[in-house]
Amino acid sequence: MTEPAECSLLDFLNGPDVEPSAEWVAAATSREPSDRAEQALIVQRRAEDTEQRLAALRARRAVASRDDEAVGVLMAAFNVGAERAFECLMWVSQQSGTPLPDVTHQFMDRAEALGSDSHDREALLGLLSKLAGRVNASTS
Questions:
Q1: Closest to 92 (Cα-Cα) out of 128, 140, 138
Q2: Tens-place pLDDT, residues 118-132
Q3: Which residues does UniProt call coiled coil (predicted)?
Q4: For residues 112 and 127, is the Cβ–Cβ distance under 8 A?
Q5: Is the model more confident about 30 or about 52?
Q6: What average pLDDT does range 99-111 have in this prediction?
Q7: Domain extent at residue 83
Q8: Which residue, among 62, 63, 59, 82, has the nearest Cα to 72 in the 3D structure?
Q9: Residue at 82 is within a domain
Q10: Which of 29, 41, 92, 132 is the most buried (most CB within 10 A)?
Q11: How many domains does the chain have?
Q12: What is the mean pLDDT of residues 57-65?
């Protein structure tokens, strides 16, 4: 019996009577089945971790967008800068003990429900007052 000629993987795939080199066979079969299963599990965990991170980033982007909308509504209605509008939302958050993202979501949901009155200063003051848990906007 003659010894098979050594070849590259491409040669092996292209020719029926050519066998891969001993080095290639050794490299392809060097891992134990448990090592391959462990590697597959690691790859799966990394993919799941990546998906979780992407979901968290998307959620943060949605919150940031809603925060920006709320700041913009306050800026337009009260003719204030972005910093002052954000401070107002922070104040409401502190007064109510509600996390800022929840305050901005509630504010925007209710402001959108106002429809054409969404830039009405009195309506927005009332809304902010309710969110802050206060009876009216004139008390301090």
A1: 128
A2: 567 888 888 888 888
A3: 40-67
A4: no
A5: 52
A6: 88
A7: 9-132
A8: 82
A9: yes
A10: 92
A11: 1
A12: 71
Buried b (16+ CB within 10 A) or exposed e, 105-134: bbbbebbeeeeeebeeeeebeebbbbbbee
Tokens of 21: 């080199």
Q: Provide the 10 A C-beta neighbour count for residue 74.
A: 25
**For residue 114, which of 105, 122, 123 has the smallest C-alpha distance?**
123
- pLDDT given for residue 33 in this prediction: 60
- Examine residue 140 and state whether it is found in any structural domain, yes or no: no
- 1 within some domain: no
If you search the block for the tokens 């109510």, which residue do you land on?
96
- SS3 annotation, the chain: CCCCCCCCHHHHHHCCCCCCCHHHHHHHHCCCHHHHHHHHHHHHHHHHHHHHHHHHHHHHHHHHHHHHHHHHHHHHHHCCCHHHHHHHHHHHHHHHCCCHHHHHHHHHHHHHHHHHHHHCHHHHHHHHHHHHCCCCCCCC
Instruction: Give the rounded percent of residues in the chain with a pLDDT score beyond 70.
Output: 67
Residue 20 Rama label (left phi>0; alpha psi -120 to 50; beta): beta
